[in-house]
Amino acid sequence: MSFVHKKRLTLGDWVNYFMLLLISAASVFPFIYIFSVSFTDPSAYVPLKFYLFPDKWSLASYRYILSTNSFINAIKSTAFVTLVGTLLNLIVTFTMAYGLTKKNVDGRNIILSGVIFTLVFHAGIVPNYLLVKNLGLLNSYGALIWPALTNAWSLIVVKSFLESLPAELEESAKMDGCTDIGVFVRIVIPLSMPAIAAFTLFFAVAHWNTYFNALIYISDTKKWTLQVLVKTLIIDSQSNGVASESVAREGGQAPLETIRMASIVVAVAPILAIYPFLQKHFTKGVMLGSIKG
Q1: Could you read off the pLDDT of 265-285 as tens digits, one per residue?
Q2: Cα–Cα distance for residue pair 8/20, rounded to 1 Å
Q3: Class of 62-293 per CATH?
Q4: Are 271 and 204 within 8 A, CB to CB?
Q5: pLDDT tens digit sequence for 80-98
Q6: How far is CA 87 from each of CA 73, 81, 261, rounded to the nearest angstrom?
Q7: How far is it, in rounded angstroms, from Cα 290 to Cα 285?
Q8: Are 243 and 259 in contact (CB under 8 A)?
Q9: All structural domains of the chain with their residue ranges
Q10: Where in the numbering of this chain does the ABC transmembrane type-1 domain appear (predicted)?
Q11: Using an 8 Å Cβ cutoff, are 231 and 244 in contact?
Q12: Mind listing the pLDDT tens digit for each residue in 168-188?
């Protein structure tokens, strides 16, 4: 017969739980406020009042921002950069990492040394800007995609993960007449699904939240990404984008605060929506790539 010993909570444990509860509340309440204000009817909104739940529910702010050309263009731009950029990131990262796992590839050590060098040393903002300018990528979506096809950290982690796969599977496939590309597509890719799911989330979040590169490379307001537009809306209430327009309502104009909060929710919601579908692969994919190697 086995007995489960229950640990008695000490004063220190209660203090730790209390502090964690406070930290959790401090982290969650801003999201609750943003969500509540975004769904608050403009006629019922009161400035400087904390909203745990809207006094009067309304979709007026969402209907408005989704009807403006500036916001629609920003969503299209961000979606395009995220989808195309993430797909290219996965292709380049996994193919290059797979090549670096082969010790018989000519120049492997030189390329790997270059990858590690970029992990430690960075060119800086000015050289990157001049490179993008000389390539003719300024004011185009290519400026947000091509310079960020992969990165040293992702390559090293994926390389470590691929090296953990059984080499016997590849050898058996080649004995059956499978080519190197066939081995990669039919053997390596299916076994790498946990890592692919994890890095899909990494790359997608990075592209969806791209701000600084879009700010310095994109000057055409019609090609602004969502994060740049939201920043302009929140920081500069007199911008030429959504913030300069207003929502008609009885008795005047809708408060800008409800539009700001709705824009934040729209900017965050897509990532929150896809995360649950990738969560089961997330931890496994990252741990497999970080432990081995």
Answers
A1: 888 888 888 777 766 666 665
A2: 19
A3: mainly alpha
A4: yes
A5: 999 999 999 999 999 999 9
A6: 21, 10, 30
A7: 9
A8: yes
A9: 62-293
A10: 75-277
A11: no
A12: 888 888 887 888 888 888 888
